Amino acid sequence: MDTQLTYAELASMMERRAGVSVEPLQLELRSAERFTEFGLDSLGLLGIVGALENEYGASIPADADACKTPAELLTVVNDVLKARA
Amino acid sequence: MRRDPISPAGRRTVITGMGVVAPNGIGTDAFWKATREGVGVLDRVTREGCADLPLRVAGEVRGFDPAALVEERFLVQTDRFSHFAMAAAELALEDAGLSAEGADSPYAIGVVTAAGSGGGEFGQRELQQLWGRGPRFVGPYQSIAWFYAASTGQISIRGGFKGPSGVVAGDEAGGLDAMAHAARSIRGGADAMVVGAAEAPLAPYSIVCQLGYPELSRIEEPHRAYLPFTGEAAGFVPAEGGAMFVVEEAETAGRRGARSRALVAGHAATFTGSKDWAASREGLARAIQGALAEAGCAPEDVDAVFADALAVPAADRAEALALADALGKHAARVPVTAPKTGIGRAYCAASTLDVAGAVLAMEHSTLPPTPHVTEADYGLDLVTGHARPAELRTVLVLSRGLLGSNSALVLRQDEPGAR
């Protein structure tokens, strides 16, 4: 598994966990837009953060599910993964 | 019993849209064709994980593709019972030509559903994650998907309906009570309500919950499993699916050019407790009398009855006696039907499917038969074998719950200017 969360993986999780379909490239291009613009609600984001913790075996800060945009989430998650490496 | 009329001067409630997801058909056309022909679709339970349970026969909705009607993000976060409800609501809204965007105000449209068991399949999956892998593997949508109110909430969110909304957790009769609740909301000022019920009780955990009901049929041959009003009555067969409706204030509906399919004319509900079917005689009779009084109908006005038809001898007898008590001599003449013997009882949704059947029967001047039943006891004129041509202006729909609720709903052909 990648040691960094990518837009491709986040897009795949949004689809599997929340039924929100978005192309990885689109997610990256629009990474400063709010998750709600993609149709992802707060419970959906909570589920994605939980699934990321399970996949990486890492504890992600509790405020990760307060991230408003894909770019913010990637920063928070990858900071955790970097610090652990 | 409520005394104030369901449709007082000026604000009448009419059905302008119907959506059906039933074991015998998806969409009102397929549902009506199978219902009119008396097609029986009770069959072996094939839902995943159910094969080894002692419930052998049920009415399953097969070939249902929710993604054809509802977006994936609503499907991922909801149980099958909400998939049925959202799909049926979508069909009803299409039929009515109604949307929040096209309405005067989204606050004028509300949602009310009835639910008997909530999201059993989704809930079981997440609880298995909890005990199998740990709490970190339970998805957050578990918090809303299992809940009785999930379908109301999702229909409201998906459609943008912000009017008075609620859920009736009122036993099987709750399907009719939800219709009355919607009519009260119309009377209270709402322009339109999305109303109905859908259930998905054919999942392992849900079936195990039902195995405790002594009224559940254990007969293994589908055509013999659910035979109300006969000497072979041995309980009911459960089913999944449901029906949703758009009901509107009649004048508002007329102004926007919507077709009125039927008038929701009267309703009453009583409670006589569980485990005493003989007592439901008085409760059901009082409900019928209350519903007729509210509709301003005499017993002779009732052109047909869609029976509760539980197929437990004491309950069948009580229903026949309730009709005699409430309708007098007319009870021996009025045709009675129970199309649900062909598809099973979908708990709260059994009565909403009967409402859909009753509206279609009025529109087609045709009473559908009671599949699998060839001859009825208790002095009832039960429609068996083939559909029967009948001029139907007023139809009575009856429902009882296993826990003691009794409800009656009167539907009438809408006559503009009446009342």
TrEMBL record, chain A:
Carrier domain boundaries: 4-85
Pfam family, one: PP-binding
Gene3D superfamilies: ACP-like (1.10.1200.10)
Coiled-coil annotated residue ranges, if any: none
Protein keywords: Phosphopantetheine, Phosphoprotein
Protein name in the entry: Acyl carrier protein
Organism, as annotated: Actinacidiphila acididurans
Lineage: Bacteria, Bacillati, Actinomycetota, Actinomycetes, Kitasatosporales
TrEMBL record, chain B:
Keyword field: Acyltransferase, Transferase
Pfam family for this entry, one: Ketoacyl-synt_C
Domain Ketosynthase family 3 (KS3) per the UniProt entry, residue ranges: 10-413
PROSITE patterns membership: KS3_2 (PS52004)
Top-level taxon of the source organism: Bacteria
Family the entry assigns: Belongs to the thiolase-like superfamily. Beta-ketoacyl-ACP synthases family.
Protein's name in the database: Ketosynthase chain-length factor
Organism (species): Actinacidiphila acididurans
Organism ancestry: Bacteria, Bacillati, Actinomycetota, Actinomycetes, Kitasatosporales
